[in-house]
Amino acid sequence: MNICPVNAVAFEDNPLDGKIAIVSSEKCIDCGMCYKTCPVNEWPEMQKTKICYAGWSMNNDVRKKSASGGIAAELYKYYLNKGCWIAGCEMDEQFSAKISLRNTGYSFFQNSKYVYSDMGDTFTQIERVLKEKNEVLFVGLPCQVSGLRKYLQIKGINTENLLCVDLICHGVIQAQWLKDYVRSKEKKTKKKASHIAFRDYRFGTQNFVLTLGDDEDIFFAAPVNRTDEYQIAYHRGVAYRNNCYNCFYAQENRTGDITLGDFTGVGTEREFLYEKQKISCVLVNSKKAFDVLNEMKREGYIFLDERPISEEYNREQRLHTPTPVPSERKRFLMNISRGKSFGSAIRSSMKLRMIKNEIKAVFAIRGN
User: Fold this and answer.
1) What is the pLDDT of residues 287-311, one digit of tens each?
2) Which of 106, 255, 286, 288 is the Cys-Cys partner for 76 at CB 3.0 to 4.6 Å?
3) Can you name the residues that pair with 254 across neighbouring β-strands?
4) Which residues fall within 8 angstroms of residue 178, CB to CB, at 6 or more apart?
5) Complete DSSP assignment for 33-52
6) d(Cα 138, Cα 296) in Å, to the nearest integer?
7) 318-342 pLDDT, tens per residue?
């Protein structure tokens, strides 16, 4: 996204932190647009959660293939069936994640992408669609929702037809490291990957199995609690972008009308009468969201069970604080700065964790 009237803001790749904004002193006219729309410098009004639901799709196939309960997928379907536009994160053939705007199909957006996603010109596309009086559903990270709201506010766009969903976020890994990882696995297996899944439904998305596949089948699968470099880098929080460790949006008040995540604490404070796997936590932060979700429930898209908000607040730390900086991060960054590959830098810095994971796995297998 670049809304500078003279294109003085560009984005460059930083080897340690992905894309960063660079302002050209020769072109800058001191209009302040870049500062005003930045979700770090200028925060929009946050919304306090009013209701918490445990929810899931009433379509078994949608629920099976979704990261948790399939609420996001059903929101996409609901909006598409009304002739509206939807925006979400998809992965292209080069394994770059990007936010895009569509009015047909939602499978591109389904399931989690544990990597930095590029906004491109999606904000300006949404601006145009809203000006044409169309309804838009936007699903993204809290910082992306904040950036969109700030952009539209600065542009003076009426957002009555916009519904924003923010995802409970732990942090993101820069795009280049994912590409390096995929290339290393292709080299090792002598296969060419055409798709990646961070929570492959064929292994149960609740098990967090990362897979790579070609046009024929899966040729690589990595369980979450073993020795895979990307799994450890993400789930141990070692390789996030620097700003993720100081994220303002890791708090109870939210930027979205709806907040979605896995509901790991369901049933801890009040009896839960349903299967506890494949459940979405649905935090309702606005009346608009309440109306949409209950209309979807009436029309048979989703099931909702109201829960104590504290069931999620007491278990999900990213609703209180950002991911803390792991002790291994310093060594990881040192390895990267010395020219080591992503995989080599992770293996070197996380050697002890990998050994512990393997010992636990061996004892778990023997115990069964």
Assistant:
1) 999 999 999 999 999 999 999 999 9
2) 106
3) 47
4) 95, 115, 230
5) HHHHH-TTTSPPPPB---EE
6) 17
7) 999 999 999 999 999 999 999 999 9
